[in-house]
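Q: What does the predicted 3D structure of M3 family oligoendopeptidase look like?
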Amino acid sequence: MIRLPFPVRDANTRGGARDLGDLPEWDLTDLYTSKDAPELARDLQWLQAECAGFAADYEGKLADLDADGLLNCVKRNERINTVAGRIMSFAGLRYYQLTTDAERAKFLSDMQEKITNFTTPLVFFTLELNRIEDDALKALFAANAELARYEPVFRRIRAMKPYQLSDELEKFLHDLGVVGDAWERLFDETIAGLSFVVDGDELNIEGTLNLLTDKDRAKREEAARELASVFQSNIKTFARVHNTQAKEKEVVDRWRKMPTAQTGRHLSNDVEPEVVEALRKAVVAAYPKLSHRYYELKRKWLGLDKMQVWDRNAPLPMEDTRIVDWDEARKTVMDAYNAFDPRMGEIAAPFFSKGWIDAAVKPGKAPGAFSHPTVTEVHPYVMLNYLGKPRDVMTLAHELGHGVHQVLAADQGEMLASTPLTLAETASVFGEMLTFRKMLDTARTPEQRKVLLAGKVEDMINTVVRQIAFYDFECKLHAARREGELTPEDINALWMSVQAESLGPAFEFMDGYETFWAYIPHFVHSPFYVYAYAFGDGLVNALYSVYESGAEGFEDKYFEMLKAGGSKHHKELLAPFGLDASDPKFWDKGLSMISGLIDELEAMEE
């Protein structure tokens, strides 16, 4: 099934309105000129006919194809994916621009249903591929080099072989996918429709979350308590969504005989469970020297006996609260990208000039930020909710990194371009690091350097510590749901069980914070997605240490890694840099970079 993009940044997103300059908006005409475009009608008609034709030509016959025949089959399947992906990208991006618009929501739903119906006859493709004997498949690859290029796709498909159901059941689950999508839409529309009143102003969730970074502590507290109040008012809806989604997953996993709730995510990420567990253990063991230590420093800077949840992302007392307008943000990121390698700046430039970025905060627009690759014959689209804070500049650097990665990987073609989530964060986090280092080099005073260092540490804690805590919460949630229905209070208790451990003794937790699981989209849209952030950050920190060491030819190796898209396993991609994610010490290398920044902050206190 074609999946939609969704906002995937951590939940510290921004909202509000200021004079930020000329903020760009998407021009979706590179996909389709409108929902009534004749090209869209033509593609839907073609897709319906081609799906039926593909099934008629190949169902029950895959095992009998020679190498040339299988290559032709794969290419036809790839073309179907491209056309379906183009339609769903258009419908999804249009919807995310204004999620409260009933017509856009209906159009998205209609397109999803049509494409699900059209592609149901294609379910046989992966099922029959998995029935081909290994030796027979190897012989086919040996006979045709162009077919052999698709070996990584076959390998990932065949990883599902032990969990494959009958053809009839697989088709049933494919059709049933639209029901799960409806619950995701309920979540999105509920979140987008929430209204919060702070200091007499009516705000959406973006605007209210933004106030958690306000300099005025009273305003931060009011915003946090209003968030808690509104979440509590809607908690039964959020609990119902989570219960239903987790139960649906449990049923499917049980039928597939998957050993854990996380197994499907690990398979789709093309990563071994023991590698993820090594990452999780390394991060949890590092809580005291990372988050606990940093937040104790911040508690002192803020002059507090105890920090409350509304202080977690508070600006530092010495922080410059000036607003960074769009032109300055663009220049900062582009300068950093060009300084690393002009090729990176070249790829990034069209995003700003051709309507590939939608930056402004607008009523009804989806919260968060993402870079959606659409399909390999078009280009990515970046969504932001830009309000001119330094962290918004880092978000731009992050999403633009995704965009550069997606452009470079596009030459692999539709089936090989997409990277597993664990590797999908590589270029984005690297882009953030380049931008951070550029800003740090230009800091004019010790105070500016301190603020930049603290901001980067906070972002890393949000990316590593917070996301692993999220992952632990999800593990507990899905395990508990297997035992029965969860009340809102049950879910609240699971949420709080990971918060104190990850944030540390510097914090107290207000009444109502236990509901803050409710608004995080990852849990609903893509269970266990979150560990990919920590994986990506750790990987990039290790990569950056190689870059800083002056390793010869690093830039060329880096571009080759991004160009590979999903055509190589993480072991193959990291080997040219002398790195191996399956080595437990690998994660310590990444975590030590964060710890080193905290060391520098502590040294500035002496």
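A (community wiki): The structure tokens above were generated from the sequence. The chain has a mean pLDDT of 92. Strands lie at 196-198, 201-203, 357-358, 370-372, 381-383.
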